[in-house]
Records
---
Amino acid sequence: MAQPGIPAARGAAAGLQAQNGAASAAGSPYTNGPVQNTLMSSSQGYDSQLPGSYPRPMPAKTLNPFSAQSNYGGSQGSGQTLNRPLVASSPLPPSLQSGPVPQMPLPTSRNPAATPMPSGSFLPGANPPPPLNWQYNYPSTGPQTNHFPHVAQPTLSGNTNLTADHQYVSSGDPALQTSFIKPGSTLPLQNPPLPTTFQPGAPPGPPPAGGPPPQKTPPKAALPPPFNSTVTQEGITSHANNGSVVAHSTYDEIEGGGFLATPQLINQNPKTSRSVGYAYPSLPPGYQNTAPPSVAGMPPSSLNYPSGPQAFAQTPLGANHLTSSMSGLSLHPEGQRVVNLLQERNMLPSTPLQPPVPNLHEDIQKLNCNPELFRCTLTSIPQTQALLNKAKLPLGLLLHPFKDLVQLPVVTSSTIVRCRSCRTYINPFVNFLDQRRWKCNLCYRVNDVPEEFMYNPLTRVYGEPHRRPEVQNATIEFMAPSEYMLRPPQPPVYLFVFDVSHNAIETGYLNSVCQSLLDNLDLLPGNTRTKVGFMTFDSTIHFYSLQEGLSQPQMLIVSDIDDVFIPMPENLLVNLNESKELVQELLKSLPQMFTKTLETQSALGPALQAAFKLMSPTGGRMSVFQTQLPTLGVGALKPREEPNQRSSAKEIHLTPSTDFYKKLALDCSGQQAAVDLFLLSGQYSDLASLGCISRYSAGSVYYYPSYHHQHNPVQVQKFQKELQRYLTRKIGFEAVMRIRCTKGLSIHTFHGNFFVRSTDLLSLPNVNPDAGYAVQMSVEENLADTQLVSFQSALLYTSSKGERRIRVHTLCLPVVSTLNEVFLGADVQAISGLLANMAVDRSVTASLSDARDALVNAVIDSLSAYRSSVLSSQQPGLMVPFSLRLFPLFVLALLKQKSFQTGTNARLDERIFAMCQVKNQPLVHLMLTTHPGLYRVDNLSDEGALNINDRTIPQPPILQLSVEKLSRDGAFLMDAGSVLMLWVGKNCAQNFLSQVLGVQNYASIPQMMTDLPELDTPESARTIAFISWLREQRPFFPILYVIREESPMKAAFLQNLVEDRTESALSYYEFLLHIQQQVNK
Ligand SMILES: [Zn+2]
């Protein structure tokens, strides 16, 4: 069972209980950081290979250059194969880490896997079954989270080498960059130099005991002298005072742990912990600090909006941009009303549904995180778990942390200011007690403002810490100094692993990939350090030496798949710049090299093992292309799809049949390698098993069923477009992510592709801008003493340019005490998204029908709670709060989504892929896949159109997903996220046919039309503008299908009309009646 707190049903704890969360059990062999894993991996049965340490002498005669002509012995293995020489492993090189490796004490009570599970509530159906539900009511299990002593953390004092330099760069685009240079300082470091030496033993240690941190040398320039600190900071050095030098051995230590939350501190100031509504007087530079203002004099009214921003409302920097999409969304009076869904059947807004705006003071809200990046299922947080239980709504966060941003404030500063207790990054929602102290909004610890932070690089004024970009932007990126590194940032490494069996060659995919790589070679994110490598495999494994100076690539075949080894490891991953010509030559020859192959076997497992060995020294990204079920060596799989069971909700194989792929993924994760799987297969390939390789290594799965270069040109086009995005998008390496929340809340279950290291640290060997994550939360302590809670995600990664960076998002939400307020603030999209993630877990750990029941019960339970506890009079009908007016519709849409549908011929791999997508997609895409947008497009007009950069983009209203909304005389576009379908009615106006589709009449619409011609007509321009605009809003290019009566895609189009009845599924109205019946019981 993945979710602590969710009882296992029918003892179904087997299978994927290794869901990310549970796999992190303390003592698991996979909990080590990368450094230890270098040592550890041999215990996994793999020898570590570091550059230069390859122990095996190469038999010279076995290496044969291949030519484009021949020389390849085919998969028959005739010719040059390498047999493993009998050489003992060389001793492992010394670890990068010298000296003792401190371990982080981790009370087991913090481990979700160790959390006692409440029993009951999800009962097997013996008795008249009580409604299945997801039991959001986790009983408070005491101090299981957030409050535990911590070892020393890196301090605030930062990198001394950079002390004098501040730089503030605002942009992602160099053109937008502005540098702010402190007067008198040297030129800012545009890109801080990479550390040339690695000094594990000497991160800036914790400050000595008994006082504030040692003052840095005050910045040069004419700054005021350091003030005489009369501020006593009780407890500020209560930890980390043993004076010892602490070396970082894990990312966990670097990123910092959870709360220290010195109990006496919390207890001493229970009241002040939430206060601080006053503004300190804006003191002129050079003031001498006086005693902190007395808290006693505070006006009580200031408690409403206690955070800093009110007092220090200044010109926001990036905030304007970040919040622009939320403007005009304040809670409409309509938001208060109760809706009878049986009477008001069309509640779907005609414009895209916007996330609710948290009920916060506008000064706070305008600084809040963009909901596209970070949102919560409940924008009003219930004060207690009991209140949350009453609402029967799931509490959780949905994140899109590495989304491509047009504008991103980037801060380069020697001091990254973080809470000394809980390691929260300073953010717009902290409280400044005065100019020298700030109170953490997560643990309430009072912290010093470091000297450097007193200078504002934006305004070039001293004494304005609250105007610093860090305090003005809920989304910000820091250039991380060397203490945020376990080792020097690694170069970007891209390894491509190609299936070249007969089946693979038949599909013709290799041509597409190689061409795409040739086209995009110079666009791979990276720099002069970028390394690439290539492997191919069928029944044997083939390597390619691309060493600079060779006249052509050399192919090396390893036929021993039972005990794979790497020939010439130093020449297989090569510098792209230095070996570019060889790489290009290889990519040109590869598609031809295997055209005659008769080898049908697939040794995917051994090939992955070899690829893992090759990448172990550096980590990086492994892109694996597979076209069939692996048949040879470790990881071989057997077909287990039974077509006659496709339609049933029971007994289908959603769990992996072997743990080989998961284990290997965890090994990869330990070495900072992620595996992306491209599955191009017409046959069952057991994606449930194969997908684990990506899931736990933080990779992604891409699936192209029935890929064929001739028979399926549309799939080819889609593959090429997606490959281009894949190859050229931003990438982060060696990443970890931690999500923190205000004391009293706790995060317990994680969804997405990653591995949970040390309880709550997500290990992401790669992070990409298209990945989404979700977490579940519970309320551990009564939040009555606080008005606001905050959530902060911090993603520490190495950019493709070799910079260590930290991207931080902070979300602030109000706490409420009544059930009505909880309902009013419900975010129905986020709730549906989180439920979908939970339902995937439930499908795997229990069964598909359990998951479906749980989805339905989520609606019934919350609406019953609303009816019985909020509504004063019991009206007939199905009464729902306005915020949840689309809840039944979205859940019905989920039930009809490929992941959870029944009664269809959904192939198992397609279902599994849909589930992978649920787990790995950002919310906005998940919602489009689940509940597509439908527009009438044969009568587009400029009325209400958007104007962007001289383009006029029509905005037709969104229609309900029902065949009732279609008409034969029109044309309708359905936007299902990854695919666009244009349904053309039989009697569609001639004008549309000729002016937009460019055809004479309906009959001449081609059977497979996937492009609209660019005609010189206003109708064509409008239609193309609208479709392009939809496409621009998502990372992957959706293919457009033009559908007419006889089109094979028609069924897919109709299937997405979720309000309609199908053979096996209720219509929306029938579903509402069912819900009403259950609610009013
Ligand atoms: Zn804190």
---
Amino acid sequence: MASALEAIGERWTLLIVRDAFYGVRRFNDFQVHLDIPKAVLSDRLNGLIEDGIIVRTPDPAHAGRHLYELTDSGRELWPVIHALLVWGGKHRKPNSRVYRHASCATLLNAAGECAECHITPPPQDIVTERRRGYRPTRDDAVTVALKAPRRLLEPLET
Ligand SMILES: [Zn+2]
């Protein structure tokens, strides 16, 4: 656990990973959505790349820029992210989003399972949408793009 936290325990790191599950891939999009200082974002992304959680590739749409995407090891953090969302929703404040099994639209239970299909869907088979009645306090491009239901890991364009 100590060595896992060396990779993901610093402030912002898991929020960056969560946004990557939402399909965020560009530096500017992470920056405006998380409202994080650029130097800190750069530092955290570099750490995630060093630890093999995120991979950086050239952005075909913007010369000189990059895309940041989860590796297989990064995608394996989904149960960690989901467990934190569930815990935070229970003990801190209600979550802004809900998570459904894409093929049957059943809400995932606290263990991340679809009780209807008796499986634990992988992130690419999960759809996230705003919780009914939730009013976002932000209006950045990523928040706007996340207004519609989305499949996790589907690249988000702003
Ligand atoms: Zn299902």
